[in-house]
């Protein structure tokens, strides 16, 4: 079966099949007479697994690792369980962060409907309560580490730092600027 047939059977784009072939997740044989890549039932099964795993949030590297273990005739189930538990924790954290953001946005909409129209300023944004953010370490040439709570205010700031909210580090750059 050729790329277009495989893609059509699985209702995916042919470029998806080509991509997974190019990165080594699929191993078609080359037809000696015409040079076309031909996929067999094993490739269909692998591609179905890849698509399902990606839909569950597994990264390409995760899928590669799982398939490598499987190719060595070992069961990848313990790895899959560990990875899905990790992805679930990551998703829960993202969900919590997005819920906090949604709540802040809803609060902003309520507050800003009562404010007069004017040019945007930092103080306009400061009227919306924000979660406490802890600075873990500055990203500068200095070896000094700063730990503490950080809030944006109307004063000028210029720094890059690793921030942590709910234990998830995030790099944020705060540009120097005035109200």
Sequence stretches where pLDDT stays below 50 over 5 or more residues: 133-164, 171-179
Task: Give helix % range.
Answer: 40-55%
Let me know the largest β-sheet.
4 strands, antiparallel
Mean pLDDT: 77
Order of helices and strands: HHEEHHHHEEEE
Number of strands: 6
Q: Tally the helices.
A: 6
Distance between the termini: 62 Å
The count of domains is: 2
Radius of gyration based on Cα positions: 25 Å
% residues in beta strands: 15-25%
Identify the overall geometry: elongated
As laid out across the biggest beta sheet, the strand order is 4-3-5-6
By secondary-structure content and strand pairing, the structural class works out as: alpha+beta
Topology of helices and strands:
Blueprint: H1 3-10, H2 14-22, E1 29-30, E2 37-38, H3 41-55, H4 60-71, H5 77-113, H6 122-126, E3 133-138, E4 148-150, E5 159-165, E6 168-174
Antiparallel strand pairs: 1-2, 3-4, 3-5, 5-6
Helix pairs in contact: 1-2
Describe this entry's structure for a reader:
- With 179 residues, the chain is α+β, with helices and mostly antiparallel strands.
- It has 2 domains: 3-74, Multidrug-efflux Transporter Regulator, Chain: A, Domain 2 (Orthogonal Bundle), CATH 1.10.1660.10; 96-174, no CATH class.
- It is built from 6 helices and 6 strands.
- The protein has helices spanning 3-10, 14-22, 41-55, 60-71, 77-113, 122-126; strands spanning 29-30, 37-38, 133-138, 148-150, 159-165, 168-174.
- The strands form 2 sheets. It has a 4-stranded antiparallel sheet with strand order 4-3-5-6, with no helix packed on it.
- A hairpin with a 6-residue loop joins strand 1 (29-30) and strand 2.
- Helix 1 packs across helix 2.
- The longest helix is centred in the middle third of the chain and has 37 residues, at 77-113.
- The model is unreliable at 133-164 and 171-179 (pLDDT under 50).
């Amino acid at each position: 079966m050729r790329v277009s047939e495989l893609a059509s059977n699985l209702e995916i784009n042919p470029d998806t099949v080509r991509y997974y072939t190019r990165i080594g997740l699929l191993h078609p044989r080359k037809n000696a007479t015409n040079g076309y890549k031909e996929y067999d039932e094993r490739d269909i099964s692998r591609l179905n697994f890849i698509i399902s795993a990606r839909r569950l949030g597994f990264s390409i590297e995760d899928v590669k690792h799982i398939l490598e273990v499987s190719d060595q005739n070992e069961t990848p189930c313990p790895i899959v369980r560990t990875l899905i538990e990790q992805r679930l924790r990551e998703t829960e954290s993202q969900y919590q962060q997005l819920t906090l953001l949604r709540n802040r946005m809803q609060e902003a909409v309520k507050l800003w409907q009562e404010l007069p129209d004017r040019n945007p300023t930092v103080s306009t944004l400061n009227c919306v309560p924000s979660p406490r953010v802890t600075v873990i370490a500055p990203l500068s040439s200095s070896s000094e580490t700063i730990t503490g709570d950080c809030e944006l205010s109307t004063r000028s700031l210029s720094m890059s730092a690793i921030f942590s909210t709910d234990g998830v580090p995030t790099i944020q750059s705060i540009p120097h600027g005035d109200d």
